[in-house]
Design goal:
Radius of gyration: 28 Å
Structural class: mainly alpha
Number of helices: 1
Distance between the termini: 91 Å
Helix content: over 70%
Strand content: under 5%
């Protein structure tokens, strides 16, 4: 039998392994949540930029109309 790197060292308790896996899954969940938040923030930033650009364009159009009128 060859030495498998996935074999646990002798004496490793299953509860220790379970605790490690729970911590790992919680960390992965937190990373996924952070990625979702980053995507949401990017979408909000894009929407805000679009609104501000539209507002600036509207303000300049209104100013041109007022000066022409």
């Amino acid at each position: 039998m060859k030495n498998d790197p996935m074999d646990l060292p002798p004496g490793t308790s299953s509860s220790l392994v379970a605790d490690y896996l729970v911590d790992l899954l919680r960390s992965l969940s937190a990373l996924a949540e952070a990625a979702d938040l980053a995507q949401s923030k990017a979408a909000i930033d894009d929407a805000l930029e679009a609104v501000l650009t539209e507002s600036a364009n509207s303000d300049s159009s209104t100013a041109k109309m007022r000066s022409a009128g």
